[in-house]
Design brief:
The protein is an alpha/beta fold and 355 residues long. The protein has two domains: 9-154 and 317-349, Medium-chain alcohol dehydrogenases, catalytic domain (Quinone Oxidoreductase, Chain A, domain 1, Alpha-Beta Complex); 162-295, Rossmann fold (3-Layer(aba) Sandwich). Helix content is 27%, strand content 27%. The protein contains eleven helices and 18 strands. Strands 3, 5, 6, 9, 10, 17 and 18 form a seven-stranded mixed sheet that branches. The protein has a six-stranded parallel sheet with strand order 13-12-11-14-15-16, with helices on both faces. Helix 8 links the parallel strand 14 (242-247) and strand 15 (262-270). It is globular.
């Protein structure tokens, strides 16, 4: 295996100890188990979960055990395979499914591995992708065409959240409300338009992201800080409201607005995570309206990945949501940019850009 130094050391961004912040460190290149592969990381993108870990919020304090290399959205070249690996070979260009499932529980055995209770997540439960090399189980590798652009390959994990959410309901010829225009919300706009939504309305509180939503194809954007979301969208829909709610923000206000606008008999797919319990009128918003609700977590393994492949082959380009790129050493600037809200997707390059 070709390594960058004879010492088998590499650069990595780590959560060295409990508390806010991250550090750039030099650590050992991972040693493979018999069923694992070693990836030379080409690019890794920052997820909202990584920002939670950077800030060290209550969720992070409960789930993260430092020292830990973080990051889980990644692509790269396979440079070594364990002795038992037969499905992946050296030289393959892969993206990574970050959820390592047990394969044995009732959920895994019935095609629902995305809700496996024994899931371990790369960059949370084991060392992750903000590094020069990453070791993963071979079954978590998704082999890409060798000519796929790096900035498409690196987004597939995150893009899968958008695809899973949008494909949970039938969006064809429907009026769709997307609440929250972070990177996943933006990619969901792309998917909704690609699969035939009649109209896509998007809300957020950050003008920068609303501008990006228009670039992604939203028919109407509404600033929830300065406009009356319910009034504006009711007017746009001639008083009807929307057929489908895709909730990506986790913000209590946005959730209430979304369910207020959702028509009787409508459908809602919820991906956004709230910071804690929220007040919600179940009678008014769900039962009396006859609403169908779908909770979305991760990606359906591997159904969503095949759906992504189809969308990308048909011409959908998720890399449109990338607005900033940094070398790994400038991770502090990258996280500050993401925390500002003045960005779309942000990508880190451990070895510099190659395209």
């Amino acid at each position: 295996m070709a390594k960058d130094s004879t010492s088998g050391r590499m650069k990595a961004v780590i959560k060295a100890s409990p508390g806010p912040g991250l550090e750039l460190a030099t650590v050992d290149v991972p040693i493979l188990g018999p069923g694992e592969i070693l990836i030379r990381v080409a690019a890794a993108s920052i997820c909202g979960t990584d920002l939670h870990i950077y800030r060290w919020d209550p969720w992070s304090a409960e789930h993260i055990r430092p020292p830990l290399i973080i990051g889980h959205e990644v692509c790269g070249e396979v440079v070594e395979v364990g002795r038992d690996v037969t499905t992946v070979k050296e030289g393959d260009f892969v993206s990574v499914e970050s959820h390592i499932i047990c394969g044995k529980c009732v959920y895994c055995r019935t095609g629902r591995g995305h809700i496996c209770p024994n899931t371990k997540i790369i960059g949370i439960d084991r060392n992750g992708a903000f590094a020069e090399y990453l070791a993963i189980p071979a079954e978590n590798a998704w082999i890409n065409p060798p000519d796929m652009p790096v900035e498409v390959a690196v987004l597939q994990e995150n893009f899968g959240n958008a695809v899973h959410t949008a494909f949970a309901v039938d969006l064809r010829a429907k009026k769709v409300l997307i609440t929250g225009c972070g990177p996943v919300g933006l990619m969901t706009i792309l998917v909704a338009k690609a699969i035939g939504a009649r109209a896509v309305y998007a809300t957020d509180v950050v003008p920068y992201r609303l501008h990006l939503a228009l670039k992604m194809g939203a028919d109407l954007v509404v600033n929830a800080d300065s406009q009356d979301v319910v009034e504006v969208i009711r007017e746009a829909t001639e008083g009807e409201g929307v057929d489908v709610l895709l909730e990506m923000s986790g913000a209590p206000k946005a959730i209430v607005q979304g369910f207020t606008l959702l028509k009787a008999g409508g459908e809602a797919a919820l991906l956004g995570l709230s910071s804690g319990p929220i007040p919600f009128d179940m009678n008014e918003f769900v039962i009396f309206k006859g609403i169908h609700i779908y909770g979305i977590i991760g990606r359906r393994i591997w159904e969503t990945w095949y759906q992504m492949r189809g969308l990308i082959r048909s011409g959908l380009d998720p890399s449109q949501v990338i607005t900033h790129r940094f070398p790994l050493e400038e991770f502090e600037k990258a996280f500050e940019t993401m925390a500002s809200g003045q960005s779309g997707k942000i990508v880190l390059y451990p070895r510099g850009r190659t395209e």
